[in-house]
C-alpha cells in the first residue's frame, strides 16, 4: 500500500479538514501519516492514521524537528497544508526525489501579506510576502497538483499549475451522525453562537453588545474557540462585565472536533454568527462551520458581501445578512430568525443534502489517481 504523508505545521490532529476529512478518507485506500502541531511531542495511532505530533517552541527548532521526523518516513506523496510545510516538502524532495508534492491551499496567504489591517507581526508579514512574490511562482509550478477550497482560488492557482482541483469543506454526514449531544446547555434558553478562531475582525467584541441590545434574558451567547491575541480574552471578559451580561455568556475555549459538534447538537435554538469586517480574505473565504450549521439545522446571521455566505446561505434562505457597523440591522436579523425559527431550520435541513463530504471524497480519490499514485 502506498503512503501519503500529510504535513500541517499550523494544524493539530483535531483539524476537521486535515484529519477528519482528508486523512480519514485517504486512509481507506492508502497508508496515511500525519505530521502536525501538538501540546507535546509524541507518536500514536488515531482512527487508522499514524500521527506524529510535534510541540511548537522556538520556530527554527520546531521546523527542524518536523524535517527530521518527515525525512525518516517512507512514502510517495507529501500532502502539505500551508506555506511552511510547502517549503519543507521541497527540502525533503532533495532527499526523496521521486516523491510527489500536493499543495492543499485553504488560506489566503497573499491577502495576509498585503492587507495592512491584519494584526500580524512584521516577521509573519515578511514571510507571506516572500511566499507571494518569490516562492509561489516557483514552487506551485513544480507541485504534482494543487487542491483549493473554492473556484476563486482555483482560478488563481491554475495560472501556475495545470492540475488544480476544488475540494470543498463540506461536512462528513456519517461522522456527524455518530456524535451525541453533551446536554451541557439549559434548553430553556436560546443561544447566539460563535465558533472558530476568535479575533476582533470576526466580531468577537460585537457579539456581547448585540446580546445586551436584544434586552432578552432568555438569549445567551456561546463562544467556542481560542482567543488568537493575548489581550483579547481579557477585553472580551471586561466588556461582558461592563454590560452586566457575564452570567449569560459561556466560553469553552478550543475544543476537539467531536466535542464541538456535541455542543452544537444540543436541543436548543441556536443562531450562528459570522459578522466579519470587510477585507479580502474574509470576502473570498468559505467558512466551513457554515456547512456544519446547515447540517445541524442552525440558521445564520452573516455579512452579505462575503461571496460564499451569499451563495450557500442567503440564496438558500438559511440565514439573514446584517451590517457589521449597524447594530439595529443585527437585532432585526436575530429577532426575525427567532420569530420564524422552524421555517429557517427546515430550509437549513433541506439545503444540506447539496453539501456532503461524500461527493468531495470521490473528487479527492480521483485527484490522487490523476497524479498517478
TL;DR?
The chain is of the alpha/beta class.
The H/E string reads EHEEEHEHEHHEHEHEHEHEHEHHEHEHHH
Residue share in β-strands: 15-25%
Q: How many separate domains? A: 2
Largest sheet properties? 8 strands, mixed
Widest sheet: strand ordering: 3-4-2-1-5-6-7-8
Spatial shape: globular
Fold and architecture overview:
The chain has 373 residues and is of the alpha/beta class. It folds into two domains: 3-170 and 356-370, Glycogen Phosphorylase B (Rossmann fold, 3-Layer(aba) Sandwich), CATH 3.40.50.2000; 174-354, Glycogen Phosphorylase B (Rossmann fold). 44% of the residues lie in helices and 19% in strands. The protein contains 16 helices and 14 strands. The protein has an eight-stranded mixed β-sheet, with helices on both faces. The chain has a six-stranded parallel β-sheet with strand order 11-10-9-12-13-14, with helices on both faces. Strand 3 (42-46) and strand 4 form a beta hairpin. Helix 12 (289-296) packs across helix 15 (341-351). The longest helix is centred in the middle third of the chain and has 21 residues, at 122-142. It is globular and about 65 Å long. The chain starts with a strand and ends with a helix. 39% of the residues are buried. The model has no long low-confidence stretch (mean pLDDT 92).
Layout of helices and strands:
Layout: E1 3-8, H1 16-26, E2 31-38, E3 42-46, E4 49-55, H2 59-71, E5 77-80, H3 83-95, E6 100-105, H4 109-114, H5 122-142, E7 145-148, H6 151-157, E8 164-166, H7 173-178, E9 190-195, H8 207-214, E10 219-224, H9 232-243, E11 249-253, H10 257-264, E12 269-274, H11 280-284, H12 289-296, E13 300-302, H13 307-314, E14 319-321, H14 327-339, H15 341-351, H16 357-370
Parallel strand pairs: 1-2, 1-5, 2-4, 5-6, 6-7, 7-8, 9-10, 9-12, 10-11, 12-13, 13-14
Antiparallel strand pairs: 3-4
Helix pairs in contact: 1-16, 2-3, 3-5, 8-14, 12-15
